[in-house]
Structures are given as structure tokens and as C-alpha cells.
UniProtKB/TrEMBL annotation:
Stated name of the protein: Glycosyl hydrolase
GO-annotated molecular function: hydrolase activity
Superkingdom to which the source organism belongs: Bacteria
Domain Fibronectin type III-like, chain residue ranges per copy: 659-730
């Protein structure tokens, strides 16, 4: 029976609203609606009128109880909504901020907070209640198609940068959905793959970044990932969503599914009972399924009520519930300045022989590489942003007063026009993500003769090597991690010709993730990783090239010599034709596709290379500057459950700059095999003038030193002497200090056990 005078929702009457709700209404609240562009419709589409065009979804309104619909839109590099709407000439562009890898490479949490604040403000002013981001999966393999959206191969970097982003976005009174929880380490068969991983690697690596973020911010929502973890879908995994997330970590928000709310092989009662509050997008039939499951005694009404309560607690916080009058006119100019500053600071200088950079007396350059003229702002798929413009290299240089040689510029500009039109005409409709973002155009052959013509008019050569990647597909080794033949010959020919004329060659890497560099780096005088730096990219690169900005970005992932050196590679899918393969995967037994064994266990990224003494192209934490720094002797002190490491840093060079000090810990010898050292804290200096010093204080939570003890389901810090090594990257340790630490244990839930034997890597 529907009561007369139903209560109207407010922050204080949630329990009475729940009492007044019918079972159908409760079920409706748990089944959200998607955007009508979403592939595989049949979901709750058009079920609510579109509120913000292009937003990824909505939660359902129940007007009888004063419950409004709320709007969720993709992130993580900006607010993903449509830039144009029918019936108006007004545009709704959103700022393209740097991708996750670029932001993390700043190692500057207050800068990331400011980016989050700007992004959150844009969402607020466009009528969006939740940004679907940040992306916080660990970069397990250089081949994962979505690495660009994630921060690092390291959980401390992931957790601290994620915290800054969440706090920044949420400072605007809107929410986040930190994703994809958890172990969404690959895109191939991402919606079904079973990620088989030890409890220790889960706790210490794959969950740790999320744990740090949940403990240090109050994320409104978390998104459960598509994949399974040790045999169970994340969205139906009570161990993950209730025991770990809520009970162990104290999460108070809602969990929503990634964009398949209904699984063929997962009854909805398992999702609700697991603590997955919202199916996104759900299907109309799921409302009925919930009602029937409760009536049949398969689903406890208390579990439903718990999700409903979480949903209502979320709804009363939203701007939409609170009647915020959004302007649809965020300050895009102010945000362009923020993105420019952030991308400049995230760029990593890999090489700078003979002080090639900053450029001196360079008036004109020969600008090679298709992407110099079609610079990537971000990646493909839901994480792309409909930006007002992208400053490419040509315009970035021009804005900085540097011209380009006209003939080469004309060749490339015409080619970009032609290839863009051709790509559109040839498009495979299954590759939906190519419509979301800037797809990659093939590189063209540049002949020796053409290069010879360019030398006369150019003081230097700049070559852009770009990579695109995105949702739904992993990267290939050939032509994606490695260079293509056209790229190789372009670098060799340009380098031979320009070096013979005594002119420098600079390579700009415009990629959201790692690439091969050792086979060609000798041919370049300087290499700058610009990542996918957002809409102001070309201006940011020019800021660094001209010395207006001194680079201070550092790698948050190892750059290996070859993909084969990475231990996860042998268990990573390499199916170039994956899209055609999808239909054929039926057996459930295809290794690397239906299931993926994390045999490298805790040895992900530098934890492997450093412990096993393997050479890399560029180590974790690496990045050059135009100045030099001297480190003082570090000191370490214990204060209760915290450890403080201090070090003084002096700018010993000639120009102002910032340095990132990194604290790596070698644990006491105890009951567990441990990586040789692990990052536990870091800090970035302020802008230090030449000769200026600063003392950095870095805090480590003692619990972050613990190993995960699977047998007892506990965190365990072993008693003994710990060494705190302070360095400029994992291979360049400048000084160390030791501390005797008294061990302790902390019990946590015993969940997420592997169902299959894993052949784990050991020292
Ligand atoms: C992606 C999510 C995204 C969602 C909504 C999914 O396919 O995996 O990251 O937030 O779509 O667009």
C-alpha cells in the first residue's frame, strides 16, 4: 500500500523515507540508467529524460518521495559530456586535462588537487553530480590499453595522487567514482576475464592504492570492475565490496557497477548482497528480479535496505538534490591555465645530451611526425573529453615564437586532413572507441631528399612519436610498444642528416604509456615525454623546450628495454585480432584472455627489476632537470604510528627548479620474502632558486611497511632494522638512515582466496 503524505527526502529523514518506500521503489533506486549511446542497449535507456547530454548515466528519480535523478559523467581527464546539443548554438566543451600518467608524473599532490578542483567545478557547473574517475588500477603491464588513465605501477603513488584528485574534485560538492575496483589490469576480454592473483599481491599492490585513497578521503562512490577476481565477478564479490572496502577500510559511500549492470551468469541477488548498491546501467527486468528475489526469500530485505540507505545518503549530498543552479558556463579560460601548468610539470625529460635543451638561438625548426600536427590531448574511449581545441606542436612552437619549415608543414597538414577523412570512411563499426577521442593516423614515409631540403631552413629537428590507446583493447608489442618501420627510418634519416649539418634532433613522445627507446635513443640529442598532456599540450611542450619551465616530472613506471623483460608479459594477452576473436571465446579456458595468472605476484614494475637486478631503459622515479640538486644526509624518526624521514635538498645549478625526493624502504629481515626496496613516501620541493635549499619532511604510516600474511589474514610488520633510502629514482640512492622498529600485526578479513594454484615467482 502506498502511504498518503509520503515523506519528502531530506538528510535527516532517510530512515522514514525507507520505511515509506514500496519494494518496487527500493528496487528502482538500485537500477540506474545509461546514456543512449551505450553499446548493447536494452539497458535502462530513455527511462528518464536526458538531463546532461553525453553524460554516462543517471540514477532514478522517485518524485513521490522527493528523490531526484542524479547525473554521473566520465572522467578521469575532464568531464566527458557532449559539446553540442540540439536546439542551441551554445557549446558545452570541457577542459582536456592531462591523462593520469602525466598527472602522477608531477609527483605534486597539491597540483593534482588543483586539477581535481577545476575538474570538479566544471562538472558542477555542467549539472553533473559524480565524475566517473579517478582511474586507479595498477599499471601491471606496459601493454594494458588503459594505462594512460591510471597513475603508476606503484600503490603509494597511486594512492596519494588518487587521494589528492578525490579531495580536489569533492571540494566542489560533487562526488567521484574511483575505478575500476579492482584488478582491471587488462582490456582484452575485460568484462569476463578472471584475474587470478595471490591474496598478498592483492592486498599489497592491487588494492593498496584504493585503500590509501579510501582512508584519506571520503569518496562518494567506487566503481566495481567488469572482471572477475579469483573466480568471482567484482560486482558480486562480497569479500571485496563489503569485507575489504567497508569493513576493513571504513568506506561509507556507494558502489556502482562498471557499465554492465546485469551479468548473464550472476544473479542480481548476489550483486545486492555483495554490497554493490547501484547497477549501471541496469535493465528494467532487474527491478522485477530484485522484487522477486526478495519475495522468494533469496535476497534478504535488509541487504536491499542497506543499499537503499547508502543510495539515499549519497543522493542528499548531491548538488541536484540541493537544488544547485548550475551555469553551464564554467571558466574554461582559467582551467586552461591550470591544465597547462599541470602538463608542463608532468613532462619527463629522459635525455638531454650536451645541454641541447633549453633551446638556444633556435628560430625555425623542421617539425617531423604526423602527430606534431595532430597532437594527442588524451586517450580513446570513455576517458576522452570533448575539448574546445588541442594546441599541437606547430601552434605551441609558434606561440613561443618558433617557426617551422613551410614545405614539411604543408606535407603533414595536408596528410592529416586526408588521413582523417579516410579513417572515417574506412571505420570498423565495432571500433566504437575510435569515435571517442583522436584515433591514430599512420606515420608517413619522409624521404632523404625531403629531409635534405629541410635542413637549410631549420636550426633543429623536432620529431613527435605518438601512441594512442584506449578502452576495450590492449596494446600490441610491434608498432605500439616498439616503433614502426616508418618511425624507425624517420628517426635515422633525420638524425643522420641533421647531425651531419651540426644541428640537434629532439624527440617528443606523445603517448599515455611506455614505449621502447633503447634501439633509437642514441640518435636523439634530447627526449621529452610529453604524455597525453591535455588540450594545452603544445604550449606546455614549448614551455619546457624554451626553458620557460624547467622539467620536474619523474616516471611513475619503469621503462623497460623490451616488453619481454617484464615478467607479466608471458601471462598477458597478445591477440592483435582480439576484436574478431571475441565471438570465438567460448571455452573459458583461453589463457591470458578468459583467465590471467599473476605469476609475477608482488614483483610488479620496479619491484621486479630492482630485486632481480635486471637492466631497464629508464628506472622508476627517473627524470632530468635543467639544474642539479644535492641531497643532505637523511634522518629518520618515529612518532607513534608514523615515521618521519627528513632530507635537505639544495639547488646546485644555475636555474630555478624543483626536485622529487623518494624514500625507498628495505625491510628488516623477517618472515617474508620482500622486494629489495619499495617506495613508501616522496615529496617535491618548492621552486628552488639557484643556491637555495629546502628541507623536505616525508611521513610514512607504519602500517604501510607491513607485509600481508596470508596464513593468518593479517598485516604484519616484522621487528628489526629498516633502512630508509632517499633517492632521485629507484637506482639513484643519495643517502640512507636506519631505524629499529617494533613489529605488530593487524587482523583483516580472510577473503579473495585464489581458486587455482598459481606458479608464483620467487627470489
Ligand atoms: C568504462 C568505465 C566508464 C563507463 C561509463 C565503461 O565501459 O570501463 O571506465 O566509466 O564505461 O562510460
Amino acid at each position: 500500500m502506498i502511504a498518503q503524505n509520503a515523506p519528502q527526502l531530506n538528510a535527516k529523514n532517510i530512515d522514514s523515507v525507507i520505511k515509506a518506500m514500496t519494494l518496487e521503489e527500493k528496487a528502482q533506486l538500485l537500477v540506474g540508467g545509461g546514456n543512449d549511446g551505450f553499446v548493447g542497449s536494452g539497458s535502462m535507456l530513455g527511462h528518464q529524460k536526458k538531463i546532461v547530454a553525453g553524460a554516462a548515466g543517471i540514477t532514478v528519480a522517485i518524485p513521490r518521495l522527493g528523490i531526484p535523478a542524479t547525473v554521473v559523467a566520465d572522467g578521469p581527464a575532464g568531464v566527458h559530456i557532449d559539446s553540442h546539443r540540439g536546439g542551441t548554438t551554445q557549446t558545452f566543451y570541457a577542459t582536456g586535462f592531462p591523462v593520469g600518467t602525466c598527472l602522477a608524473s608531477t609527483w605534486n599532490t597539491s597540483l593534482v588537487y588543483n586539477v581535481g578542483r577545476a575538474m570538479g567545478n566544471e562538472a558542477l557547473e555542467y549539472g553533473v553530480d559524480v565524475i566517473l574517475g579517478p582511474g586507479m588500477n595498477l599499471q601491471r603491464s606496459p601493454l594494458c590499453g588503459r594505462n594512460f588513465e591510471y597513475y603508476s605501477e606503484d600503490p603509494i603513488v597511486t594512492g596519494t595522487i588518487g587521494t589528492a584528485m578525490v579531495n580536489g574534485i569533492q571540494s566542489q560538492g560533487i562526488g567521484v567514482s574511483a575505478k575500476h575496483f579492482a584488478v582491471n589490469s587488462q582490456e582484452s576480454d575485460r568484462t569476463r576475464v578472471d584475474e587470478r592473483v595471490s591474496q598478498r599481491a592483492l592486498r599489497e599492490l592491487y588494492l593498496k592504492g584504493f585503500e590509501i585513497m579510501v582512508r584519506n578521503s571520503n569518496p562518494w562512490t567506487v566503481m566495481s570492475s567488469y572482471n572477475k577476481i579469483n573466480g568471482l565477478y567484482a560486482q558480486g564479490n562480497k569479500g571485496l565490496l563489503t569485507n575489504v572496502l567497508r569493513n576493513d577500510w571504513g568506506f561509507k559511500g556507494i558502489v556502482m557497477t562498471d557499465w554492465i549492470g546485469k551479468r548473464k551468469d550472476l544473479p542480481i541477488e548476489s550483486e545486492v548482497a555483495a554490497g554493490n548498491d547501484l547497477m549501471m546501467p541496469g535493465y528494467p527486468a532487474q527491478v522485477e528480479d530484485i522484487v522477486n528475489a526478495v519475495k522468494a526469500g533469496k535476497l534478504d530485505i535488509n541487504d536491499v535496505d542497506l543499499c537503499v540507505k547508502n543510495m539515499l545518503e549519497y543522493i542528499v549530498k548531491t548538488p541536484r538534490f540541493n537544488g544547485y543552479k548550475y551555469s553551464n558556463k564554467p571558466d574554461l579560460e582559467a582551467h586552461a591555465q591550470i591544465t597547462r601548468q599541470a602538463s608542463t610539470e608532468g613532462m619527463v625529460l629522459l635525455k638531454n645530451d650536451g645541454h641541447t635543451l633549453p633551446l638556444k638561438n633556435i628560430k625555425n625548426v623542421a617539425l617531423f611526425g604526423v602527430n606534431s600536427y595532430d597532437f594527442f590531448s588524451g586517450g580513446l574511449g570513455s576517458g576522452c573529453v570533448n575539448v574546445p581545441y588541442v594546441v599541437d606542436m606547430l601552434n605551441g612552437l609558434k606561440n613561443a615564437g618558433i617557426g617551422t619549415t613551410p614545405q614539411l608543414t604543408e606535407i603533414y597538414q595536408n596528410y592529416v586532413k586526408y588521413a582523417t577523412a579516410k579513417l572515417k570512411a574506412d571505420k570498423n563499426p565495432e571500433m566504437w572507441f575510435l569515435d571517442q577521442g583522436q584515433p591514430k593516423l599512420d606515420e608517413i614515409e619522409i624521404t632523404k631528399r625531403c629531409i635534405e631540403h629541410e635542413i637549410k631552413g631549420a636550426d633543429a629537428a623536432i620529431i613527435t612519436i605518438a601512441r594512442q590507446a584506449g578502452e576495450g583493447i590492449d596494446r600490441q608489442i610491434e608498432g605500439e610498444f616498439n616503433l614502426t618501420d616508418n618511425e624507425k627510418s624517420m628517426i635515422s634519416r633525420v638524425s643522420d642528416a641533421f647531425h651531419a649539418a651540426g644541428k640537434p634532433v629532439i624527440v617528443i613522445i606523445n603517448s599515455g604509456s611506455v614505449m621502447e627507446t633503447t634501439s633509437w635513443r642514441d640518435r636523439a640529442d634530447a627526449i621529452l615525454v610529453a604524455w597525453q598532456p591535455g588540450e594545452e599540450g603544445g604550449n606546455s611542450v614549448a614551455d619546457v623546450l624554451t626553458g620557460k619551465a624547467n622539467p620536474s616530472g619523474h616516471l611513475t613506471m619503469t621503462w623497460p628495454i623490451s616488453v619481454a623483460d617484464v615478467p607479466s608479459t608471458k601471462n598477458f594477452p597478445q591477440n592483435p585480432d582480439y576484436y574478431n576473436l571475441t565471438d570465438k571465446i567460448a571455452s573459458g579456458q583461453m589463457k591470458g584472455v578468459d583467465y590471467t595468472n599473476h605469476e609475477e605476484d608482488i614483483y610488479v614494475g620496479y619491484r621486479y627489476f630492482d630485486t632481480f637486478g635486471k637492466q631497464v631503459a629508464y628506472p622508476f622515479g627517473y627524470g632530468l632537470s635543467y639544474t642539479t640538486f644535492e641531497y643532505g644526509k637523511p634522518t629518520v624518526k618515529e612518532h607513534g604510528d608514523k615515521i618521519e624521514v627528513s632530507v635537505s635538498i639544495k639547488n646546485t645549478g644555475k636555474v630555478a627548479g624543483k626536485e622529487v625526493a623518494q624514500v625507498y624502504v628495505t625491510a628488516a629481515k623477517g618472515s617474508y620474502e620482500k622486494p629489495a626496496k619499495e617506495l613508501k613516501a616522496y615529496a617535491k620541493t618548492d621552486m628552488l632558486k639557484a643556491g637555495q635549499s629546502q628541507t623536505l619532511k616525508m611521513t610514512i604510516n607504519k602500517r604501510d611497511l607491513a607485509s600481508f600474511d596470508e596464513a593468518e589474514s593479517q598485516w604484519k610488520v616484522d621487528t628489526g632494522v629498516y633502512t630508509f633510502k632517499v633517492g632521485a629514482n629507484v637506482e639513484d640512492i643519495k643517502g640512507q638512515a636506519t631505524l629499529n622498529i617494533k613489529g605488530y600485526t593487524e587482523k583483516v578479513s580472510d577473503v579473495l582466496k585464489p581458486q587455482h594454484k598459481l606458479n608464483l615467482l620467487h627470489q
